[in-house]
Amino acid sequence: MIKRKPVWLKTRRLGDRKTREITQELRKLGLKTVCEDALCPNRGECFGKGTATFMILGSNCTRNCRFCSVEKNKIFLPPDPKEPVKIALFANKLKLKHVVITTVTRDDLPDGGADQFVKVINEIRNKCGNETTIEVLISDLQGNQEALKSILDASPDILNHNVETIQRLYPEIRPEADYFGSLKLLKFSAEYSTDYKTKSGFMVGLGETKEEVVSLLKDLYDHKVNVVTIGQYMQPTKAHIPVKEYVHPDTFRYYHDVGMEMGFLAVESGPLVRSSYLAEKTMKEIRKISL
User: What is the signed CA dihedral for 138, 27, 22, 25, rounded to 10 degrees?
Assistant: First the structure.
């Protein structure tokens, strides 16, 4: 049985004009958003503001994380050669100032899909210019450092890779992922160049303790992550792992304060926060700090 949500998890309805406009445009171009596929609670708000997080490389994932509503399927199509141009045209048409690109995990591809990320970044730069900032939310690429370098060499403004949860819960929540491998990816990215910022995010409400969350924040800080997002896990369907706790907003404020005291450039922490929630605002804030 899915736990009843508390009042602080109420979200905006999805039926307004701007939401319909964005959705129709996405359908026309055949583009996917993680906002829809992952049942993000903020998709009404973000679509209403004319923003979206594009999801490349199809909608079927090669892994089976127990928290995620993205489809798991054994049928995987090759990367769509038209996808980078379509995303760039959409971003240009909406005059987006900050574009977020994410992906399903594609362990079936030798480079994990890195080449498609590079093509999308290049097309957005070509169509939108340098005024549009770009954030990529990548998979772990199975530890393929050369694939990671190719993405970093394309100079995104933010390199994002989510750790998702505390180390202790990995066998239960992310059995096919490696906690320390993710930390290694983030640190390598931070040390590879100073041209971009590194970012990571995780969920709470899965059975972690406050002490474990603080320990995770310290791990991220020690691995040179600049920006952190912390949000409430919400069970997508009865088939997914149940919510252990709906964390109170006061606790999210505590995690925010702890993270900022550690020295992160930005910590977005709240029940409805997701990886790309308010990403444009966060980008502006860290740019001011970096000047």
Answer: 110
Helix 83-93 and helix 114-128: axis angle, to 10°?
40
Decide: pTM greater than 0.85.
Answer: yes
Q: In whole angstroms, what is the distance from residue 197 CA to residue 225 CA?
A: 8
| Of the candidates 164, 141, 163, 165, the residue with the CA atom closest to the CA atom of residue 151 | 141
Q: Cα–Cα–Cα angle for 31, 25, 60, nearest 5°?
A: 20
**How far apart are the C-alpha atoms of 289 and 257, rounded to whole Å?**
17
In the chain, beta strands by DSSP E:
53-56, 60-61, 71-72, 98-103, 133-137, 158-160, 197-204, 227-232, 266-269
**Residue keyed to tokens 């100073």:** 194
The pLDDT score that the predictor gives to residue 44 is: 59
Helix (H) or strand (E) holding 235: none
User: Is 120 strand, coil or helix?
Assistant: helix
Residue 106 DSSP code: -
Q: In which band, very low, low, confident or very high, does the pLDDT at 28 lie, cut at 50, 70 and 90?
A: confident
168, 60 in Cβ contact below 8 A?
no
Residues 6+ apart with CB under 8 A from 197: 157, 158, 159, 226, 227, 265, 286, 290
Residue 214 CB-half CA count within 13 A: 10
Section 257-277 average pLDDT:
92
Both tokens of 195, joined, read 């041209």
Answer whether 165's CB lies under 8 Å from 203's CB: yes
DSSP at 179: H
Please tell me the predicted confidence (pLDDT) of residue 162: 96
What gap in Å lies between CA 36 and CA 288, rounded to an integer?
31
